[in-house]
Amino acid sequence: MNNRKVAVFDGDGTVIGQVPYYLADEALYRYADKNYKDRNDPQAKSKIAILNRMVKDGNNVGKAYVEDRVHFLAGMTPAEIMDMGYECYLDSYQGKFYPEMKQLIANLKEYGFEVWILTASPEFLYQKFLAEELGLPDTQILGVKSVVANGRLTDEIIMPIPQDDGKANVIPTFIKARPLIVGGNSRGDMDMLNQSCGLKIVVNPDDTTIRGKEDGPMNGYTVKQYWEKEGAVIVKCNDVPNPEIKFHTESWKIRTNKSNPQ
User: Fold this and answer.
1) Cα gap 12→120, rounded to integer Å
2) How far apart (Å, rounded) are the C-alpha atoms in residues 97 and 163?
3) Distance (Å, rounded) from C-alpha 41 to C-alpha 23?
């Protein structure tokens, strides 16, 4: 091939485990517990108020929740946010990368593919640890973007937001090539997966919840049933909680993600 060979993968649940909680949530609630919870100043109050709003919303995969993660991080430098994600990874998520997916990505790079990670989590929060573990440039790790002004993150979110249909729109907006391979795991990855002009890989798809009318073409199917019908490659990777690790997210009463023991 003379044109670009592009592969795009989701982050949580596709290349790294998401049980029992998303790393993006754990990083934020962990940081709040350590830095804001025992303070009574205006900054701490405003940050805790954002998290309380997120908890009340309850839908930690919805666009409002995804946007509020960025609002919580506003005012910090990109380096501070990268370190926040990296420290959370070292403390609670080491060993959670799926070895099969890491090997696949390494193989694709050997064959001249550009490999991109596309996540609905804040971009700076995930770039450092994903770049290090997967051997990718941080510029090829895309997430929720917001304007950096005077060296600090602002509340001004750059569209499209990489969630649901927005995830599909990120590909032509920022990657600017139609991928030959796309990998995902959830309903939120459906639109992105359908951008693939070749292989679609679905990791640990849910086979319990029948999707509704709001899920478009997935209506009436589980995620697994839909992708079996569409001819995607279904793969299984081990994703279970480590009972020795205590998660800050638990005390904030965020729902747990389903285990996938293999």
Assistant:
1) 9
2) 22
3) 27
